Amino acid sequence: MTRVLLIPAPNFDLQDTLRQAMALDCEELDEDARGSKRDSEGRVVVAPAAPTGLPEPSRLMRGSAPPDAVRPSPFFQRVTHLCVPAASCGYQAVSERKGCLGRRYTVEDLRREGFVEIKWDGISSQVAVEEKTEKVMVVMAGQPDDPTYRECQSRVTSKILKAGEAAGFTAQELEHKRASNSAALNTGIFHGVGTSGPVNLSNGKRAQLLEDLVKDPDICRVASFADEVYEQVENKLGQLYEKDPSLRPPFECCVLPCAAFNFGPQVCCKGHRDQGNLPHSWCAITALGHFDPEQGGHLVIEELKIYIQFPPGATILIPSALLTHGNTPVSDGEVRLSFTVFCPGGLIRWVDNGFQTQDNLRKKVSKKEFQERMKLKETRWQDGLEKICTLAQLVDRYTPKKEDASSLDPEPSASAVEDSPT
């Protein structure tokens, strides 16, 4: 069962947010005319040679998860619980709102400002739905109710902590624009600010450290848990991997091309939006560590005015390019890390442009065809809005068909129609 939380959020206009988010031309922002390849922090990227024994593209797609990977339950109940932006190309978001950028959250401040706390055990699945549009904005996927998974989470925490110690991060790396007291490294495939095409992110002397982490079976199990929700980008990423076998997604068990490790020991993300991510796609965030989720480590969603208890081992999915998010600090002596998988929007744009930049596309197609393609930018925000699932679509997708009825429990009473399993 998945609980549905209806969030009124009267000051949040999803359509306007998406329209504004797509207000700039990201081609002008992030494709370097000089061809310099840079990572998301502006560092020069050197793409490593294709490894030997690279899995076939089909193995990189959803469905190649380890046998013991447990997927989130698709069934849910509807419960009324509360009174509760992308560039013109449509593949990434504009910069964060200045009023929230870099904000540090505390539970006390959030309570004083009227944010609503969502209590959550980190296991049962829940979704938060924006009431006006009935669009699903937050998926609390949880975690398998399995002691071996909790043991796995504990081992992952220890491995990332040890890797962080071995990395020898500087004071400047521990304190940056996205988080306090935690260095962060991205690994995988990227195309965005400063790159002329998809590249494998380079992390210099720390490359082997990250390679060891993404090959670890415990970390792969955590990554595979969120993989099921990425059908929208799965096909295009498959095309990308087939076109260029030298590109190396971090995991065989997860289709997402990029992963980020926040090494802690006390990750406290400031308010931010991940503007390079595909606006209408999910970013899967997994909290790790040993801390009391009732006291700290909450996931804060600025636009929805909620903060969610986020226990260690649990996974939450949000459209991180659209929603300003961060987390509250944990207590002294506690440990909180985080791990995310996501899709840079530039990769999808590259595929849609025929595996080339917009400038190269202009040179290869007729003027009329190019103008028609550019015309699509005016409505791409609407296409993105359509791709964000509604509550009705979620119900329809997971409502058992008549032929499957015999395998279900007896029907609930007529008075509980809205609470029926779907």
Please tag this protein with its features.
422 residues, Jelly Rolls, 10-stranded mixed β-sheet, 13 helices, 14 strands, globular, disordered C terminus
What does this structure look like?
This protein is α+β, with helices and mostly antiparallel strands. It has one domain (about 1-350): q2cbj1_9rhob like domain (Jelly Rolls, Sandwich). About 25% of the residues lie in helices and about 20% in strands. The protein contains 13 helices and 14 strands. It has helices at about 15-20, 25-30, 105-110, 145-165, 170-175, 205-215, 215-225, 230-245, 345-350, 360-365, 365-375, 380-385, 390-400; strands spanning about 1-5, 75-80, 115-120, 125-130, 135-140, 180-190, 200, 260-270, 285-290, 300, 305-310, 315-320, 325, 335-340. The strands form two sheets. Strands 2-1-4-5-12-9-14-8-6-7 form a ten-stranded mixed sheet. A four-stranded mixed sheet has the order 3-11-10-13, with no helix packed on it. A hairpin with an 8-residue loop joins β6 and β7. α1 packs across α12 (about 380-385). It is globular, with a radius of gyration of 21 Å. The termini are close together. The relative contact order is 0.20. Mean pLDDT is about 75; it is low at about 25-90 and about 410-420.
As for the number of domains, it is 1
Average pLDDT figure: 76
Strand residue percentage: 15-25%
CATH superfamily: q2cbj1_9rhob like domain
Radius of gyration over C-alpha positions, nearest whole angstrom? 21 Å
Ends distance: 9 Å
Low-confidence stretches: 23-88, 411-422
* Proportion of residues in helical segments: 25-40%
CATH class: Mainly Beta
- Helix segment count? 13
Largest sheet: 10 strands, mixed
SS content category = alpha+beta
Question: Might you state the CATH topology name?
Answer: Jelly Rolls
Q: Note the run of SSEs as H and E.
A: EHHEHEEEHHEEHHHEEEEEEEHHHHH
- Side by side, the strands of the main sheet go 2-1-4-5-12-9-14-8-6-7
Region (Disordered): 400-422
